[in-house]
Specification:
The complex is a heterodimer of chains A (330) and B (324).
Chain A: H1 2-28, H2 33-41, H3 48-58, H4 66-78, H5 93-128, H6 133-147, H7 150-164, H8 185-222, H9 225-232, H10 237-249, H11 251-255, H12 257-275, H13 280-289, H14 293-321, H15 323-326
Helix pairs in contact in A: 1-14, 2-3, 5-8, 5-12, 5-13, 5-14, 6-8, 7-8, 7-12, 8-10, 8-12, 9-10, 12-13, 12-14, 13-14
Chain B: H1 2-17, H2 21-32, H3 35-52, H4 54-57, H5 88-124, H6 126-141, H7 144-157, H8 164-175, H9 177-190, H10 194-201, H11 206-214, H12 219-242, H13 253-262, H14 275-299, H15 319-323
Classes of the chains: A mainly alpha (330), B mainly alpha (324).
Chain lengths: 330, 324
């Protein structure tokens, strides 16, 4: 229990750090980013109110002391106020994020779980047949696939399955013209159809990590005496493989969930951009493209909050799975 | 007895490092005899040589619009041309310079930061460790790419992204935490060893113990985190450039992809504007990753499996393979 409180404390500090980074970074930048943004936007039509919104975002008002700005900022965050988007003026950034977050969570969640199960299963199987031709062929192949940048893989899938074969839709999260969002089969089917290629991109890119970590751990576990013992007892292969070896080899895979999450979130951002998928990554891209700093910052904050929360969740699961942690002996 | 034993170990580690040429050569041979490492090193050398010898490999200026634009590959332009009529092969070859240099600078800087944070956190312990590992862990949970994008978009607003080193600095800032934690873990176990205790007993300063007792014993680990950081830096740099946050006026692998995407090259079937840059990135990153896998195999013999398969995969279906 004490361990959990300690971890909860750490994640609170991480949250605070993410929020504070958001406040500090633009203020530490050399020059005057607010003016740079305003100057860039002058080419488009900007209203007085938009300029005020940018100034407020960067906190350039010299009459307000910095600590006061910080407290106001924290207060704003606690009330869900993330500033006002300049590219979609005057929509609050919070509203844009509220619409895009579910898409990203869905994409990342499905891809992460599927990639974990498929990758771990492949890892178990090739470790069982270690030294065979597919144990030598599969890991290098997957490594090469995972070395391909996510967005490039996404472009490749768009080209092959979207442009040439025309099997799957390659644009947006659902069929915007023919179905309306809601809990009906048409919409859900459309969402699933549109998610196939993005999810495939993420799975292909992240599979190698799961396969290799599981394979290496399995190879180590398979040389343990209790595995030989289980085989000697004449237990079925399936039982030895899954209940004796894999069960004991899987813990490092679970621990690496948090690192995998960070990577797959990064991948999802880029994948969304290629597919015009209406998630956080796409919002972030639009923010970057239209010099909408409030939106960029809001996206970062929401992603950071989601990742920190997910990490905490993983840690709870880990405590549940590994009694050594639960009982506090190191 | 204990102390003399420890000093023996200590001198052994020093002679190992300050070794003669023949010894270095034999170590190198041992490393390169691992096929994965040999492949990876070959790939890296290939790209480095390509970047250095760029002017010898192509007669074209990567920025000059020489022909009409978007020509498919031909003998005159083996990778075709860009939308602006620049030679794609020249762009790839010269672009390797920018991509490799930025990632290398970022990885070197990041590795130095990893060593400083990881080693001092573990060696000094106590309050120092509490604070430093807190910082390391916070950076570890913050999502790297979004933070990189935030920093780069600010840099791009003020025009600072035209300087490659600003991009390298951004990558450095967001890439150091994982390696720092790995090194911290290793140092925690190393500092309990006898030779460190012996060095401390003879009154060596902390800085000297860290730099000449602990650091040399972590060389292989540092090399592997460096390679890992390099892979991350290449990927993140290419991603930033693809988003248009780099210097888009100068060709690099990411910038090539940015322009290809901006001109919707794939939708109209101009695959040659995407394929070369993407394959180069994938090949480079895969090569680097193989170096790391090879080093893992060298240091963990249990991962090296060379004997024929003994276990059968589910029942007897694959018996033919097993008995072969």
């Amino acid at each position: 229990m004490r361990y959990l409180f300690r971890r909860a404390g750490f994640y609170l500090i991480a949250l605070w750090a993410a929020v504070s980074f958001n406040f500090i970074i633009p203020r530490l930048m050399p020059g005057d980013p607010a003016e740079a943004y305003i100057a860039k936007l002058q080419t488009q039509q900007v209203t007085r109110a938009q300029i005020d919104a940018i100034r407020a975002e960067f906190g350039v008002n010299p009459n307000v002391p910095i600590w006061r700005q910080y407290l106001d900022y924290l207060n704003g965050i606690l009330h869900g106020n993330l500033g006002i988007s300049t590219s979609q003026f005057p929509t609050p950034v919070g509203d844009i994020l509220k619409q895009s977050l579910p898409w990203t969570i869905g994409l990342v969640g499905v891809a992460l779980v599927m990639s974990f199960f498929i990758g771990t299963l492949i890892g178990i199987l090739i470790a069982w047949k270690r030294g065979s031709w597919y144990d030598t062929a599969v890991p290098p192949l997957l490594t090469f696939l995972s070395a391909i940048p996510y967005f490039w893989m996404a472009l490749g899938l768009v080209y092959i399955f979207g442009v040439i074969l025309n099997w799957f839709p390659t644009d947006s999260g659902y069929d915007v013209f023919n179905v309306s969002p809601g809990w009906n089969m048409d919409f859900i089917g459309s969402v699933a159809q549109h998610a196939i290629l993005p999810v495939a991109t993420l799975i292909i890119g992240s599979l190698a990590g799961w396969v290799l970590i599981m394979r290496n751990m399995m190879v180590t576990t398979l040389s343990e005496d209790y595995v030989t013992m289980a085989e000697a007892k004449g237990l079925s292969e399936r039982r030895v493989m899954f209940h004796y070896a894999a069960r004991n080899a899987i813990l490092p895979s679970i621990t690496s969930f948090s690192i995998a999450l960070g990577l797959i979130v990064s991948g999802a951002l880029l994948t969304e951009i290629v597919f015009n998928y209406p998630g956080i990554g796409y919002s972030l891209y639009r923010g970057v493209q239209s010099d909408d700093y409030a939106l960029v910052e809001g996206c970062f904050l929401v992603i950071a909050l989601a990742v920190i929360f997910a990490n905490f969740l993983f840690e709870l699961i880990y405590v549940f799975l590994d009694p050594r942690v639960r009982h506090g002996n190191k | 007895m204990q102390v003399t034993n420890a000093t023996n170990q200590n001198t052994a580690s020093i002679t190992f490092l300050g070794s003669t040429k023949g010894r270095v050569r034999s170590i190198l041979r041992a490393i390169l005899s691992n096929p994965k490492i040999a492949f990876g090193v070959g790939v890296v050398i290939f790209f480095v040589l390509m970047a250095i010898a760029a002017p010898l490999l192509t007669p074209y200026d990567p920025n000059a619009s020489i022909v009409k634009g978007s020509l498919p590959p031909s003998w005159a332009h083996i990778f075709g041309t860009t939308g602006l009529g620049q030679d794609m092969f020249a762009q790839i070859v010269y672009g390797a310079r920018v991509t490799l240099l930025v990632a290398f600078v970022a990885a070197i800087g990041s590795t130095i930061l990893q060593i400083v944070m990881g080693l001092s956190s573990a060696y000094y312990g106590g309050m120092v460790d509490e604070v430093l590992s807190l910082i390391i862990n916070v950076f570890l949970v913050l999502p790297g790419l979004p933070l990189t994008i935030v920093l780069a978009s600010l840099a791009s607003a003020s025009g600072a992204n035209r300087n490659e080193f600003v991009i390298a600095l951004v990558l450095l800032f967001t890439s150091w935490s994982y390696g720092a934690r790995v090194l911290r873990g290793q140092t925690l176990s190393l500092k309990e060893r006898e030779f460190v205790a012996a060095a401390r007993a003879t009154g060596e300063s902390s800085l000297r113990i860290i730099s000449s007792e602990i650091l040399p014993n972590e060389v292989s680990l540092i090399a592997s985190t460096f390679v890992g950081t390099f892979v991350y830096a290449v990927g993140a740099e290419v991603a930033l450039e693809f988003l248009g946050l780099g210097d888009t006026s100068r060709p690099s692998w990411g910038v090539i992809l940015y322009w290809a995407q901006n001109n919707a090259a794939l939708i109209v079937g101009k695959w040659w504007q995407f394929v070369p840059a993407g394959l180069c990135i994938a090949l480079l990153c895969a090569g680097l990753t193989f170096i790391n896998f090879g080093m893992d195999e060298l240091s963990n013999p249990r991962l090296r499996v060379e004997r024929p398969p003994r276990r059968r995969l589910f029942s007897r279906k694959s018996k033919g393979v097993a008995s072969r």
